[in-house]
């Protein structure tokens, strides 16, 4: 495994564009944490400091940081599809196979690299969230600090699943731009599934449940939006805002299932394709 990861890292770090995108994909998520130090002065009447609003308290900080940091995954998605596009355009795929790398090892090298960068991103956002939480949170009990850390696991699985989808699209079309366009097409398809389900079952709740089994929607549902939850902490009497924001194991299983499907399909495409 380490040999395959090292092989991919050499390819990525020799490419200037990939290095820049990797750097950006790791730095931008921390802009979410920078919000903790922002002070907004309202014409001298009062100053609003986001960190003092309680949104960086434990355990809600795990939810907030992982939700907003996940939006920056598109930068590394470009790296993932570029890994495949460059293999075809630079003829390195064929050369790797000639040099003794099997097609299975080729796909595994991409997948291991995805897992490696996803794990690294997860560790960084976890450590940053932990220290920001220690600084701002009024709760210092270990039971509260480490409550809801399942959002960290959900963040990691979300990254691995999304990048595996990008890997599959990269293998399917061989071109970075077209592979990213397929993400938009899939997004439209999932909404068509929703409206089709709505027509069949007659209610939006069932339609959303059906849509929840689709790749992009299942990844999104791993970490639900925290906006309502933030409002609920300030206005606990707003019972109409109550919703289920927890990480559910069945949602994790769906994303892991799609991840396995995408890696398997990527391997099948490579195995049947005439290089």
TrEMBL record:
Membrane-traversing stretches: 20-40, 60-84, 111-132, 152-170, 177-198, 252-270
Coiled-coil zones: none
Pfam families given in the database record: ABC2_membrane_2 (PF12679)
Keyword tags: Membrane, Transmembrane, Transmembrane helix
Name under which the protein is recorded: ABC transporter permease
Originating organism: Corallibacter vietnamensis
Lineage per the UniProt record: Bacteria, Pseudomonadati, Bacteroidota, Flavobacteriia, Flavobacteriales
């Amino acid at each position: 495994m380490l040999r395959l990861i090292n092989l991919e890292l050499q390819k990525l770090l020799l490419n200037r564009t990939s290095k820049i995108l990797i750097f950006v994909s790791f730095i931008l998520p921390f802009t979410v944490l920078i919000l903790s130090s922002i002070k907004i002065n309202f014409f001298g009447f009062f100053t609003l400091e986001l960190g003092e609003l309680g949104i960086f308290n434990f355990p809600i900080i795990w939810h907030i940081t992982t939700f907003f940091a996940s939006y920056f995954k598109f930068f590394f998605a470009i790296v993932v599809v570029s890994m495949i596009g460059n293999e075809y355009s630079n003829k390195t795929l064929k050369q790797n196979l000639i040099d003794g790398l099997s097609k299975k090892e080729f796909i595994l090298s991409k997948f291991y690299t995805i897992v490696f960068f996803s794990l690294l991103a997860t560790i960084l956002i976890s450590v940053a969230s932990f220290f920001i939480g220690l600084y701002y949170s009024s709760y210092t009990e270990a039971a509260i600090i480490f409550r809801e850390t399942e959002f960290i696991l959900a963040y990691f699985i979300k990254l691995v699943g999304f990048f595996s989808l990008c890997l599959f699209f990269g293998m399917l079309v061989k071109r970075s731009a077209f592979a990213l366009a397929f993400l938009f097409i899939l997004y439209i398809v999932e909404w068509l599934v929703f409206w089709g389900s709505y027509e069949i079952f007659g209610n939006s709740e069932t339609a959303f449940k059906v849509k929840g089994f689709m790749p992009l929607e299942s990844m999104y549902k791993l970490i639900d939006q925290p906006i309502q939850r933030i409002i609920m902490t300030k206005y606990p009497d707003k019972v109409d805002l109550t919703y289920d924001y927890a990480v559910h194991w069945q949602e994790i299983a769906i994303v892991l299932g799609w991840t396995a499907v995408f890696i398997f399909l990527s391997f099948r495409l490579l195995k049947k394709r005439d290089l």
